[in-house]
Structure formats: C-alpha cells, structure tokens
Batch of 4 targets.
Target 1
Amino acid sequence: MADTLTIDQKVELAQKISAIPAEDLDMYAHEQNLALHDITVWSTAYEVGGKLGVQAMTVLWRPERLKGRDWHERIKNAAKTFRPRRLRVRAEGNQYTAEEVKPLTVKNIVYTPVFQLRVVVDDDAVEHWFLYWRRADGTWWPHASQGEYASPEDAVAEVRADPHGCFRLHPLH
C-alpha cells in the first residue's frame, strides 16, 4: 500500500506518527496496513526535515544533466577529504552514495556504502541536502544531526565530524 500513497499522504502520516508513542507504532502500522519500517522512516524524515525531509526520503527524481553532473563532482571533491581512504560516489537521480573502495586482490574490489546524500529542490529553486547513514540491515536512515544542509560540502563535513559514530570513516593517520 505504501507505493500507492502520494507524497502529501506520506507527509500527513509522518505528522500523525510523530505524535504516537513508540510502543503503539506497531499497532498503528497494522491498522493502516503499512510496514512498520516505512512509517518509522517517514516519521524520522519528517522530524529531521519536515515535508522536504519526507520528500527526500521517498522520491527519486532525475535532475537536469548539467546540474546532476555538477552535484556529483562537488560531492566527489568533498569526499577527497577522507584520503588516504578512497571513496567513489555513485549517482542515481537525486541520490548520491559514497562507497569506500577496498581492493582485496587485483581483480577483486569491494565497495562498502558509507553515506548517502539526497537533494530536493523547492519551488524557489533552493537546494536542500539531506544526509543518510546505512543501518546494519542495509537500509538508509535519515541522519538526525541537523536536518537539512545548504550544500553537499556541509553534509560531507558532518560525515567527517561524525559526532554520533554513525559513519566510522575517520581519516586514517
């Protein structure tokens, strides 16, 4: 059912869910015929970034080609601060995933996702960047540090600081 909801319906649900005590969420999800994971992630996204936070969490869109390329380059350049660790940045629409490159052998390389940035552009063409960390189950979760960021560089700086230990990607010395 979650796939049939509009962004406005997801935002409305996220607002309601934010007011429900944690111990009652499972029952609410069952009553609404929704997955508990979906409603909790929407609620967290709403608490972190409001309507734009939910939009960033749930909507994948393809930016104009030059703009997308510019964002990709900016994120790659910001990720260079983690050297000597190597990161690659993979773009999928408005989502940019930074992965640590770990060569095991000459022909075998492992890419470990570390963080993800998602961008939403509002009606006034203002960019709103959201930072995500990867949970142990492989799902992306909104990082609750400050909500939205004005630029991808600001979000990468948050990853570098990592005050909550979500990313564990401190530069090697």
Target 2
Amino acid sequence: MSSVIAALQGLGIKVEITDGVLCLAQGETQMNPMLALRNFSKKPEYAEFFVIEGSHPKQWSTEKKIEFLRNHSDEEYRKLVQEPVLEAGIKTMDPNMSRKAYEGLTRFERMTFIREYGDDAVRRIYQR
C-alpha cells in the first residue's frame, strides 16, 4: 500500500487514510477513490500493484487454459483449480456503491462507511 500511496503522491494527488478509508484529492477537488484507482491501475507502470485479471482457471478464456497446459503439468493445473477464486478488481467504499457491493462489506467496513458518509448514504444505496 505504501508503494501505491507514494506513486499517487508522485502524480500530485493528496492521499489520506482516515479511519481506514482512502481519501484522494487533487488541489481542492475530492476524487472518487474507486474511479481514480481504476484509472491508475490501467497505467502499465502501476499494473504490478493490482490484481486485474484473476489467477483462477475459472476466469480464463479457453485459449489461456490451453496455453497454461502447454507450459505446465496436469498436476499444477489441478492444484490451481482447487484453490479458492480470488476476485480481481478494485474495491473501495464509495457513497455511490451498489447495494450488492455494500452488502459485501464486513461489519467493521460498514461501521466505517456509516461513520464516514452517514446514515443517509446507506439509505440512498438501498433505495436504488
């Protein structure tokens, strides 16, 4: 995380972590952390910081599975298939998040969300 923060600060972005919530600003403009990190992760020089593509065969195309089997043994593939699926993507708490994303938060994350954005944000999420 410290490498990501240093890279963001190198781009002129003010980074703060308040009660476990990432806050980004550039000048006087507050940035949506989810969109900012999503765009940040697309830059090739910062791709190493993020899991963009899942490493589980369930998420691969047929061509990628064939390529893996050409370079690895059946045993390695079997072990990979038996591992849990890690979901690729960037998740941040955002008052505009979907209901499904909000319900996926842990109890601590929900408490932090309510402390940061208030009860109104939760109500708006459930009204959508």
Target 3
Amino acid sequence: MKIQEQDLYHGAALTQIVESTSFTALNRDPDKYGLYVINHDRRVLIKHAAGPRADGKYQFTFGASDRQLLSQHVADPNKTFVALVCGQHVICGLNLTQLGSVIDLAAGGSQWVTVEAPPGKQLRTRGSLGDGPLVAVNAFPSILLQ
C-alpha cells in the first residue's frame, strides 16, 4: 500500500499518544479519515500542515464536515480534541472548548486556525474568531489523556 503524506503526520501524533503511559486503546472512527477514538471515550481529529506559511505560521482549515462532526460532541468538550500537526516541528493539542474560542463550530463556510511556534515560547493560536489560547509545547498528548 502506498504511503500518503497525511499518514506520516497522523502517525507522528498517534505515536505520541500510544507511547503515553495513560494510553490503553486506539480505534479509528469509520465516519471520517483522521478521527480516532482513544481509550474508548475520547475522540481526536488529526489535521496537519506540511510546513509553515511565509509568515512562519501553520494554517489549518476546518470545513463544514469537520465542524459538523466536532459539534456533535459539544456536550462533553473535554473528551473531544484536535491535534494540529505542525510539520515536523510540534503538535498543538486543543480541546473542543479551546477550539471553539477560535472558530465557530456552527458557522457556514470554512474556518481557519493558525499555530505559531516561536522558539522557547508557548504555541500561539489564532482563528477565524480571533486570538486563541496559548498552548504549552509539551501539552500534547497529555491534554487528551488526562
């Protein structure tokens, strides 16, 4: 089977998850490529950006199907996450509440999130709704396994 570029980035995130001492199970969600069920009760949608834009930020697009899928889980936002794989540099993990602070899960059209990874500092997030949370570089995968 041919290896697709996205598989390499998803593999980076999944490896960090399964190497965690809190990990017990991994299943793929049959509804969407890139959506996984971790430890039987948590969902993570993995998105990737192969490299930064000219301004050094990594950009991720959330289409209507992504947001619809995620919005199904807003009742329990601490069990649904996104893993934003920033090239070969870092993975930014956000829970659904944090993601909802930068994009509107109910809006039409595409929404975007950028991640900036300045050396020696926390990850900076921004999205269609404006500035988002600062995220510790080492927050992933522990954010979804707590």
Target 4
Amino acid sequence: MEELDFEVKLTSNSIDRCPGLKICINDSVYFSGEVLGENIVTFKASITDDFNLNISYAGNNPQDLILDDEGMPTNSVTVTIDSIKIEGVDITEIAYNYSKFKINKSQKYIDDYELTECMDLGLQGVWTLYVESPVYIWMLENL
C-alpha cells in the first residue's frame, strides 16, 4: 500500500458561481464543491493498486446560458486543471498527454464525446487519468 499526497490546482473563470466539481480516486471522493477563482485541493490517499484520478464536472445548465449574436454563450463557467502533483512531483504534462475527458452524452451539439489532451472542463463530464502502481515507477516511465 502506498500513502500518497495529491495536489490539484484548479482555476475557474467565475468568482461567484460554479457548477459542482468532484475529485475522486476510483469511487472515493476527496473533494466536492465549487471552484471559484483559483483553488488548490490537497489530500492524502492510500493506494493499493492501479487507480483512476477522476474529476467530475457538473457542467453548465443550458437554460442559464446567455448567448451572443452568433449563438455563443457569454456566461459559461469553465474550470481549468492547471497542475497536478503527486508526492510533490508535477505530473501535469503526463496528465495532459494521457488523460481523457468523457463528456456526458446528454450534451447536445457535441460531435466527439471523448477528448484527449484536454485540461479545460466546461461541459458535463468526467476527466480521468489512469495511474499505475507503483506510482513512482509510472511517473518515471511517463515523464
């Protein structure tokens, strides 16, 4: 079993409202709430095997969006995953290269429901990074 320290830096383009966000290791929730401005979420997790680091984003409610003359939303809230550290090691580049953002299929007007190289969350979905154990070996192999 590995006891690991995690740090996830998130930035929202809103300071007064944000759809809900959860950070999980597999099914265990370590953060649940809003991201207003810049937030750094830190937590410890005991890991026994390979795991998924998941960030679930509730997405913008289409009924709340204000559209400009071209039909683009002017008030949508996005959350950016700025950095991810495990045991103080910055793995942001690994996260960018190997994560997937699976967009909820109920979102209309989306052609591709699974994005790679995506660190910006705006639509309802789950961002996932698969991490192998032992974590230090996985980090060395992928940095």
